[in-house]
Fold these 2 entries.
Entry 1:
Amino acid sequence: MYYIGVDIGGTFTDCVLVDREGNHRTAKTLSIKDDPVSGVLAGLERLAETVGVDLPTLLQRAERFGHGTTIGTNAVLERSGARVGLVATAGHGDALEMMRGAGRVAGRPIESVFSVHGSRLPAPLIVPGAVVEVHERVDASGKVVVELDLDAAAERIGRMIAEYELDSVAVALLWSFANPAHEKALAQAIPDVFVSSSAEVSPRLGEYERTVATVLNGYVGPACSRYLSDLESRLATPLLVMQSNGGVLPASAATALGTIDSGPAGGLIGVATLAGAYGHDHVVASDMGGTSFDVGLVVDGKPMVAQENVIDQYTYRLPHLDVRSVACGGGSIAWIDEATGGLRVGPASAGSEPGPACYGRGGAEPTVTDADVVLGLLRSEAFLDGRMPLDRDAAVAAVGRLATRLDLTVEETAAGILRINNMRAATVIRQQTLERGHDPRDFALYAYGGAGPVHAFGYAAESGVREVVIPLGDGASTLSAYGIASSDVVLHRELERSLLAPFDGPALATAVAELRDAALADLAATRVAGDAHVEIDALMRYHEQLMHALDIPVSPAADGGTLLADFDKEYVHRYGDAGTSPFQAVEVFALRARVSVVAGIPIARPQQSASTEPAPTDVYWPGHGRTRTDVYRGAPPDMITGPALVELAHTTVAVPPGATLTAGPLGELHLKEFS
Amino acid sequence: MTIWDGVQRGYIPGAALRIHESLRLHTGTADVDPVTFEVIRYALMNINLEHGQTIQRLAVSPVTMITRDFQPSIITESGDMVFLGPYLQYFSNAQALTIKWILENRSENPGIEPGDMFVSNDPYVGTPHQPDTIVAAPVFVGDELFCWVANVMHQSDVGGSVMGSFCVDATDIFTDPPAFPPFKLVSRGEVRRDLEEMFLRQSRVPTDVHMDLRAAVSANRVATGRIVALVDRYGADAVKSVMNRVLDAGERTVAERLAKIPDGRWSHRLYAEAAHTGDTGIYTYQITVRKRSEHLYVDNAGTDPQTGSINVTYAGFSGAFLAALTASLTADLAGAYGGVYRRVHFEPVPGTLSCADFPAAVSPAGIYTMETLISLSGAVIGKMLACAEPDVAELAIGPAHPVFYGLICGGVHPTGEPFVATNADNMIGSLAASPAGDGIDFGGHFWIPEGTASNIEELELLWPMLVLYRRALRAGAGGAGRFRGGRGFVEAGIPWTVPGMAAAVYTDESFPKAVGPFGGNPGSAGHFRLKHGTDIAGRFAAGEVPQDFDAITGIEAQVEAKGPMLMMGADAAWEWTGANAPGFGDPLTRDPDRVRADVATGVLPADLAERVYGVVPGEDETRALRAELLSARLAGAVAPAAAPATVPEDVPLRPLAGELAVVERDGRPEAFVSVTGRVVLAVAGGNFKDGCAVLERPLHDVAPEFATREGRAGHRTRYREYLCPVTGLRVDSEIVKEGDEALHDIEIDLGEDW
């Protein structure tokens, strides 16, 4: 029996298989953007070959089939989603368009936030004009102030659907999370289109973000549903769909919105799973690719969750694994800031087209990858298993042009590019850890993605981390697919409920019980079998701190005294005691339940590809200069001491002078003593 | 003699600061390679961003946590600003001024020591108005003062005669909120309870202020810790050298751009109405910028003498100008603006509305005079940039709203707790049109990039009110132009679950203040309306949420520009607006297809397409209608003294902006010319308005959108159009107080002594 995970990315479709013994196989094929189902099947065919069976047999033997898709993300970024109309409370239909006045800058890099020049609002998500405002009103307490005339409203919505030829309707009424009656009635009354209701999609305070979530769900929903049912019809096993919350759900229960950013969540959940087996409970998960660098945290064995997300300048709230992205990857372009004379790297990227100068596809600007080639960390003939030779001369020329202007050698310049890129990466790591009151030195850093293992020694040292792990060794480049295969079934359910300290009455226990029941009911509706595990966090702050939230676990007994003490402790931990406020009440403003059914698949043990005898090469190691360096093809079984390069199928592990690299019992690699 | 001492007159530091010898300043430097430079620069920038994010998380007042009416910064040991965050930009130099004053006046007594933090809200020292409270922390390395971290935060209420501390009825600072010169709130790491309580005692909402003040202290501590760690790693001298180089780089950047602007002089004038409650006067603010080689000289001559509550001190004047300048000319520096400031030399006339002497009242400045001065500065800068080389000319971004439209209500929650509801939904904003194109609808405000409006649900959670609607304003005469200004919003609400509340601060303009550059229409005026004894409860019961304020029955209150506090019962309803931002260029030159696109999407009513833009369905009909409208303009206008001479077709024109161009001889401007009509308007050293036909009308006659009732200031303002005498196209226009002469506002220096 096989456990299969498939992750579609922009360039590659990754397929991973784990069997009951933990044997691990991977296949990497090019994604087929116009026909993703065929792309998945082609990948599975390759995967079948690795275990010596045909595709139907592979599918027959699949006990569990997890899948992460970028259909939703692409639909938003390319504006190729459904024709959505919006139903809003009378007087509030423009909230989506007005974007709280922040739509021009939301989610944009800091370097461009100050500038009006060239800034714009994002393209609309709904069909322009397709808005029906219905006369109804609920107030902050959830009381109905104005009754809904359901028939009249449904009739107008029907006319809007016809007039604008809609295939999707999003219903987002004011205060619907406090009293969903009107929204539910409307959602049930709308026929024949994909209907999203805000109290279901994102039952949280803030009509703008809730409306965005609902409209996005409606925008990507039809295409996601079509694709997933098409794919499922080709499989022999129920399809489990990866969600951004780090869990999978049966295709019938998965939300379209939850597929957005589910790929990075798959990577982080893969890390969390492996970290348990490797013996790390505090982990920085870092994925450096061609254009971006993604960072997530595992603390006490749990991946960290965030509420707010931004896609194409639209902000919405949905509990998702907190994976933060910064434009700093192999394709990041190095340039000189004329005014300061300083060397800068990014945020502009050469991407994959034209890509770094060394790709020989017409790119002339020096990138981080070009710097790697100049230094010798990436060897031209060994890139991607020799399938894509790199043009070293082009890299030297591109970096050399900068070097001349900086009055540095070409190697010094390349080392400088890496140092700055590493510092940008480390900044994200430090922000993620320090703002939560953690010390990066207490973390192990897991490095994956094509450009992760080659740079990890640098950005790990810069952020203060002392151990780097290349999870799955040779399989690190398909880590997200492994995460998707191994994810638990996870549902989040939220309840917006304001409770002021001291939490000594029955209100807390009542709310917790209510939420637990609702979450279990949600799970029952998915018909997933297995033991359900419920964890509940209180979202807490001082009263009126609307932009602030600390997630504090609620003890099984829902003990208010403990909760308050835990909040105080966490607050002081993060902000120091000058910030604590005996003069303002502590508040629970929402509760979040996570209900899960454990996947329980074996920990993957990747095949050890036989390591070759080391061959010598020359590498310019930052801080050491040009040094004779051993190159291994495949991970060596015994500990090696740097300088060394270990070339794997899709990435290279750089082991600087003095550092050690050891293969772990589960095929992972440990890099130490690098700082 | 009165000096710029921060006591009798706004503080302007001298060339050398007088710092007590007991305080040792770190001034070391080191050679830093280009790579280490970037590593440290990026770290410093991120420290400041983290400082801002910490404030945002820990604060409780929406004006701080959502509106982002605050600003963190990193400042050198001697008070030069290195990094500003993407928050309120007119705090550009508030911290720097306050810190320089602290260095000069507090370094001996009580002394400046590690772990200290100073608090000040004194506008004569450095803050724009009293609610903007500065907390400044010296950062020591060993026994040397290495640098400062500081923040300014708008506190919800710091006392004074009006809830929310925008005291429009103040006649001097003694009826304004108290202004505290810098005092040491935190001494060697300990918060001084006595001083904290003294400060909080002034507030109507001391708990909110307490939380926000502690947020400011905590955030400073976070930033201080990060800087100390950076110094530990790279050395104080290296970090300081990076700070200095960032400053130098900002200076070099602005100097390079100033080099692409001809020497000259540019002026603009903007009016405010009502100096205090009960007043209907019109008051003049003027700013003139002279540019010579790579320096700017800025004065406020022509501004009326200080009066009422519509004043600011030097801190406000300079802060507003620098915010507008950096947003247009050097926004790519992303907050590293300190070096830019070195090239701006202020020559303020004291005793004026924009540079008041003690004891003038200034507290309403945060919603009035500061915005007036930012808008005014933007207009002057736009004129200057129009004369520059194309890559600098395109940096013009148009004038900001001249007022921050807002509503502050107060009252008592059903629980008995008092509240002050500062509704800053005008963060939805709208950007002015610019030479590059239309302004951005709901584009916020360029001077507070990360400012965000509240969700309605947040307002209703915090305060006992119910919002009937918050909708986009439609386009119309307000904001029309070749490129139209961005659209704003309109919002209406009622008291909810309480027997009533009071509207303490509101804005109802009797005329729009900001004219569109180069013939663009003014933006729309902001309005506040109030009805008592409405039928809203009945309409709720009948299943309707009222959506049209005119159709709500009840008695409409007569509202004044800076009127008194208005009491509102449970059956009252209010409506208030933001504004559409000013347009750019003559509306009759707007591409008809863009007008039709706005009609098709419901943004512009079809009848306004015809009335405002001269656009009707057919191309020929549109051409004919526009020709008719242009001749009507000329028929009503006073022709220029001299008969118009035109420039031959084969002579190339260098366009400046809209219909204004110059002809050059030997690469130097020779004459101002209209673009389409090719009429010589003036020699290059003269005033192009002299060659224009002038059409002058009462502003309220120009469009129904600008109407107001008799007796209000708007009835005494006029709209003056400067037309090409051949085509009738607008070259420029002015809003003027009755009797005010034309402003000679663009002078390009021809090399003579000027």
Entry 2:
Amino acid sequence: MNDFYGSDKKDALPHEWQQWADKSGDLQQLDENTKAQYFGVNLGSDHAEPRDEVAQVDVPQGDLQEGMA
Amino acid sequence: MASWEAIKDTVEWAGKLIENGRPHASLPRQMANAVPDVNDWQSLTDVKGPQTILWSPHYTNGFGLDVVKFKVALNWDFGARYQNGGAFIPNVWVEVQECRVLWGFDVDLEFRAQRPTNANSSGQPPHARITCEIFGTVSNVINSWEVGYGFTLFGDGHSESRATN
């Protein structure tokens, strides 16, 4: 069991990856290619977008004019 | 000196949204706001919203696995009037809607908001503006990547956003 990485996270992996994770408890035992592919990541989509936008409003003067200096 | 022309915050929460790969158990329902600098700011009317922006980055490894994937919703109420005028933001809050972190990876994500300002010039009705940032790191034992997104929210309901890393 490799608690260093968190066994609960490992449980979220597909079965074959759980087996791989069990075998790779010692990171030094991993071959470099496997290590590079598993831990090397690319950032996928990274954009923010509005959801179900509510209509914008204006900015009225209202009754505030009375209080202006 | 207090004035409805000035804009203040009455809440200024900064903290962890995701820590050690797990969402914060109970995030507050109010993290920031932008209201008139008067004692009776709670008498705001005509609140609209919430407006929501979704930010959902994901990281994919060499095997095609999405090793890190999270979805954060930034929400704000807007259009609030003081004495029937202006456009204020009475509430800003964040929800972590999804957080998937596979074995060997970690995520830490924080939220912070800057002091609110008035987007209008003097003599015009106040238009609240507040800038927030969600930022942090995605990491494993080999590497670490900074991640972040900035959001400027306006009292009329529009927004501007951009990646910060």
